[in-house]
Design a protein that fits this description.
With 196 residues, this protein is mainly α. The protein contains 11 helices and no strands. The protein folds into 2 domains: 53 residues, Orthogonal Bundle (Arc Repressor Mutant, subunit A); 140 residues, Tetracycline Repressor, domain 2 (Orthogonal Bundle).
Length: 196
């Protein structure tokens, strides 16, 4: 019979699971992070883990999403603070470029290689991935709501295009570290120009 926890204990355990999962993710990656390692660090029985998460992948995905959302909120604040009388294309390009650079330097988001993402994605329920994609589209829509975008700009297409550029950040080494930020800037500026 599993132990029952108070709401306070549940909140604490969930917080600790996410903290230690983030550390493991940054240190070991998706493949080598184990439930055993996480529960040992949190000092709970393995069975307790499954009271909170159905799988290691769901916990790791939650950690990644929270990191992504924290950075996303910074972007939205920056977009809201843009000077409407300035060069909107240049301002938005800088904001989005800074977002991708910040994401590429995040210990959690940085270690996610294409293979790691594939491993995680194939073990997640399809509805979880679809919900994330819908969230990305609604985040782009939220940004669009405060910008003077051109008529007919399809938020879903732009959301997918921004996601494609993000995936390019996973290949900084192949692109070339020397050129990476300039290439990123050019890609984003081209896309931002299409928005207006």
């Amino acid at each position: 019979m599993p132990k029952s926890y108070s709401e306070q204990e549940k909140e604490y355990i969930k917080k600790r699971l996410k903290e230690e999962a983030a550390k493991c993710l940054a240190q070991y990656g998706v493949r080598h992070t184990t439930v055993d390692e996480i529960v040992q660090r949190v000092n709970i029985p393995k069975g307790t883990f499954y009271l909170f998460y159905k799988s290691k992948e769901l916990l790791l995905f939650q950690v990644i999403l929270e990191e992504h959302e924290m950075i996303e909120q910074k972007v939205y604040r920056a977009v809201n603070e843009m000077k409407q009388d300035g060069d909107i294309v240049e301002q938005l390009t800088r904001i989005v470029c800074d977002f991708y650079i910040l994401a590429s330097k995040s210990p959690i988001l940085k270690m996610i290689s294409t293979k790691e993402v594939e491993i995680l994605a194939r073990k997640l329920p399809p509805e979880v991935l679809n919900e994330h994609l819908e969230h990305d589209s609604s985040a782009v829509e939220k940004v669009f709501s405060v910008l003077p975008i051109r008529d007919g700009a399809d938020k879903d297409t732009f959301s997918a295009a921004f996601r494609a550029i993000y995936l390019a950040t996973l290949h900084e080494e192949e692109i070339g570290e020397k050129y990476f930020e300039d290439v990123l800037y050019l890609l984003i500026k081209g896309l931002v120009n299409q928005i207006f």
